[in-house]
Recover the amino acids of this structure.
């Protein structure tokens, strides 16, 4: 099931919203991948984009005096560690896509609207 952008994910920054939407599109490509080569390519693109996005977002946070900056960075590191641990598993197993979907859906519906938006709306 694809994850869809909705207005509750708007963090109040056009560039961050654009990056989040791009990550959603990459996640959906992973979830719809039909063969191993496509899956590996999509996951690699997603990981690269997540690294770029987190670097960008954390730079903005630092400069803006984002509340709870260190905790937010730790949440990013935890998400990346969970994604990497999942990617080290068998991408062809029946449970891979459902585990991946649960992880990224949690990030989309929890981290973005509650953690990202909370901080930007108070800076």
């Amino acid at each position: 099931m694809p994850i869809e952008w909705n207005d509750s994910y708007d963090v109040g920054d056009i560039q961050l919203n654009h990056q989040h939407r791009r990550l959603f599109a990459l996640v959906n490509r992973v979830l719809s991948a039909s063969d191993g080569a496509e899956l590996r390519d999509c996951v690699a693109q997603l990981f690269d984009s997540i690294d770029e996005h987190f670097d960008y977002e954390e730079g903005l946070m630092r400069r803006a005096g984002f509340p709870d900056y260190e905790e937010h960075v730790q949440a990013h590191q935890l998400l990346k560690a969970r994604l990497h641990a999942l990617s080290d598993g068998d991408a062809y197993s029946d449970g891979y896509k459902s585990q991946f979907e649960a992880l990224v859906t949690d990030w989309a519906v929890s981290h973005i609207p509650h953690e990202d938006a909370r901080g930007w709306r108070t800076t």
About this structure: The chain is about 75% helix and 0% strand. Residues 15-117 form a domain with the Four Helix Bundle (Hemerythrin (Met), subunit A) fold (CATH 1.20.120.50).
